C-alpha cells in the first residue's frame, strides 16, 4: 500500500482488510458501494490472486461490479445467487445499536436488498462514522422521477410530525442534472440533524407514494469493523455482544490500492 495515504484512507484500508477475515472459500458475498467498500473489493482480489480464495460476488452497483471484475472476482446476480452467505458494505453513519444511514454513494436500494438477502451483514467504516444519534449525515431516500417535487413536499410536510431536528431536503445533483440511480430514480437528501426514532421514520417514509426506499438500515447489521488511522481495528459483534481489537501493519511497497485514496 502507498505510504502517502491519509489517516482516514489508512483507517478505511485496515477496516476492509480485517473484514476479509469474515470471508471463507466458496462463499457468495454481497459487495457494497462507496470508497470504503472499494478497498474491500481490492483486498479480496488480492487474496484471491495470492491465496487462491474462491468466491462469487453480488455487487450493489454497476461501478462495484466493474471493479470486482477488474480484480478477478466472479460477478453474479442476486437472482443467480438466490441467497448470500455474507454482505460487507460501508456506512455513512452507525450508532451504538449498529443501525445505519447508507446511500451517500447513491446505491441504497440495491444495498438494502442485498444486505437483507444475506445470512450476515458486516459494515466497514472509519471511526469518524460512529455517532450517538443518527441524522447528522443527510438521510437519502430514493424516489421515482414522476412527480418528485410533489413527493418532496409530502415528505417535508410529514417530517414536521417526526422526532427530527430539521425538515428540509434537496434533490441530489450530478453537475447540472439530477443524479440518477442504477434503477433510474432520483435521490432526495433529507437534512434532519438528529433522528429520534429511526425505526418509526423508516416505516413512515416507505409508506409514502413515490418513495422507493430510504437509507435507514435498522436491525440489519450484525457486526461493524472500525478502522483507525494508526492501524488499529475494532470489531463489534451485536449478536455476540463482543468487542475485539487488533492492529494491522502497513506494507509500504504494495501499490495495489494507491488509486483508491480520495
Automatic annotation (TrEMBL):
| Active-site feature positions | 111
What reaction is this protein's catalytic activity? aldehydo-D-ribose 5-phosphate = D-ribulose 5-phosphate
Q: Which domain of life is it from?
A: Bacteria
Q: What does this protein do?
A: Catalyzes the reversible conversion of ribose-5-phosphate to ribulose 5-phosphate.
Keyword set includes Isomerase: yes
Pfam families linked: Rib_5-P_isom_A
The organism is Sulfitobacter faviae
Tell me the enzyme class: isomerase
Its family?
Answer: Belongs to the ribose 5-phosphate isomerase family.
Alphabetically sorted, this entry's keywords are: Isomerase
**Quaternary context:** Homodimer.
Protein name (database record): Ribose-5-phosphate isomerase A
Residue sites binding substrate per the record: 33-36, 89-92, 102-105, 129
Which pathway or pathways does this protein act in?
A: Carbohydrate degradation; pentose phosphate pathway; D-ribose 5-phosphate from D-ribulose 5-phosphate (non-oxidative stage): step 1/1
Instruction: Show the GO MF annotations.
Output: ribose-5-phosphate isomerase activity
Q: What InterPro entries does the database record attribute to this sequence?
A: NagB/RpiA_transferase-like, Ribose5P_isomerase_typA_subgr, Ribose5P_isomerase_type_A
Quote the EC number. Answer: 5.3.1.6
Question: Cross-referenced PANTHER family, in alphabetical order?
Answer: RIBOSE-5-PHOSPHATE ISOMERASE (PTHR11934:SF0)
Amino acid at each position: 500500500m502507498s505510504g502517502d495515504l491519509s489517516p482516514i484512507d489508512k483507517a478505511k484500508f485496515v477496516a476492509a482488510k480485517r473484514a476479509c477475515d469474515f470471508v471463507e472459500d466458496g462463499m457468495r458475498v454481497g459487495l457494497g458501494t462507496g470508497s470504503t467498500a472499494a478497498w474491500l473489493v481490492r483486498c479480496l482480489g488480492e487474496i484471491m490472486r495470492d491465496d487462491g480464495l474462491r468466491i462469487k460476488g453480488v455487487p450493489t452497483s454497476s461501478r462495484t461490479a466493474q471493479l470486482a471484475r477488474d480484480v478477478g472476482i466472479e460477478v453474479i446476480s442476486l437472482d443467480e445467487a438466490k441467497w448470500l452467505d455474507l454482505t460487507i458494505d460501508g456506512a455513512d453513519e452507525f450508532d451504538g445499536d449498529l443501525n445505519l444511514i447508507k446511500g451517500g454513494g447513491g446505491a441504497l436500494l440495491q444495498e438494502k436488498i442485498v444486505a437483507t438477502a444475506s445470512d450476515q451483514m458486516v459494515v466497514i467504516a472509519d471511526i469518524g462514522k460512529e455517532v450517538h444519534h443518527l441524522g447528522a449525515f443527510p438521510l437519502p431516500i430514493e424516489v421515482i422521477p414522476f412527480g418528485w417535487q410533489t413527493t418532496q413536499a409530502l415528505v417535508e410536510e410529514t417530517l414536521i410530525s417526526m422526532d427530527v431536528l430539521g425538515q428540509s431536503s434537496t434533490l441530489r445533483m450530478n453537475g447540472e442534472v439530477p443524479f440518477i440511480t442504477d434503477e433510474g430514480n432520483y435521490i432526495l437528501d433529507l437534512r434532519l440533524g438528529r433522528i429520534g426514532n429511526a425505526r418509526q421514520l423508516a416505516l413512515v417514509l416507505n409508506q409514502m407514494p413515490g418513495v422507493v426506499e430510504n437509507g435507514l438500515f435498522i436491525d440489519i447489521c450484525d457486526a461493524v469493523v472500525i478502522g483507525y488511522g494508526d492501524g488499529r481495528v475494532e470489531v463489534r459483534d451485536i449478536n455476540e455482544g463482543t468487542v475485539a481489537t487488533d492492529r494491522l501493519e502497513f506494507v509500504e511497497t504494495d501499490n495495489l490500492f494507491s488509486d483508491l485514496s480520495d
